[in-house]
Amino acid sequence: TQLLEQSPQFLSIQEGENLTVYCNSSSVFSSLQWYRQEPGEGPVLLVTVVTGGEVKKLKRLTFQFGDARKDSSLHITAAQPGDTGLYLCAGADNQGGKLIFGQGTELSVKP
Amino acid sequence: NAGVTQTPKFQVLKTGQSMTLQCAQDMNHEYMSWYRQDPGMGLRLIHYSVGAGITDQGEVPNGYNVSRSTTEDFPLRLLSAAPSQTSVYFCASSYGPGPPAYEQYFGPGTRLTVT
After folding, report:
1. With contact defined as beta carbons under 8 Å apart, do A51 and A68 qualify?
2. pLDDT tens by residue, chain B, 115 residues
């Protein structure tokens, strides 16, 4: 069974601080996605990384896929209150058709 | 496009009752999935479908049934509700296998409470 472990589960920081969220597994994934979810809504895709070692930037968010395609990280620079939400990583299994989600990281950015 | 729609948004059931959660998408996606979300456990796959007439089990299928008679609709049936099925349920759709096709579009969710 493929599992994804996210850390930390909770993160409370002040506006302007930097943070990193980690997503780790002992399994190899064909691709990995990061979603953001706000209260009362469904998750929304932020990015998909496909190639080992790949780095993608989305404004103040930087996503990295590990060289062995077993882990990923999300780094936020100068966090803002609007970044508050639940961040989920999800790995695509190699058999096709299914995503495996991590437990999520609840981020709170205080003004 | 409305994207992925789910009804109802909230539901309270008594133990033993049955009900159907509705899900529809207007993006002509082949893949559709049902997830449940519980605190600290992320999203867990219940059932999924790779096309009309084809369904398969996910990680937590017990107590749930699905069918896929059209590309657009993918209802989830709770056969005999139990308190352990209290959760938030999300329907999602995607183009198909392989990136970027794995990118899931989620509905707004149904919050279900079983008493």
Report:
1. no
2. 789 999 999 999 999 999 999 999 999 999 999 999 998 888 999 999 989 999 999 889 999 999 999 999 999 999 999 999 999 999 999 887 655 557 889 999 999 999 9
Angstrom CA distances, B65 to A12, A36, B16, B21, B78, stand at 39, 28, 15, 11, 7
Note whether A66 contacts B: Cβ–Cβ < 8 A: no
Instruction: Choose among B44, B102, B108: nearest Cβ to A42.
Output: B108
In the structure encoding, which two tokens stand for residue B72, read together? Answer: 């657009």
Q: Do B108 and A40 touch (CB under 8 A)?
A: yes
Residues on chain A touching B92 (C-beta within 8 angstroms): 42
List the single best residue of B31, B37, B102 to mutate versus A (max A Cβ within 10 A): B102
Residue keyed to tokens 């996210």: A6
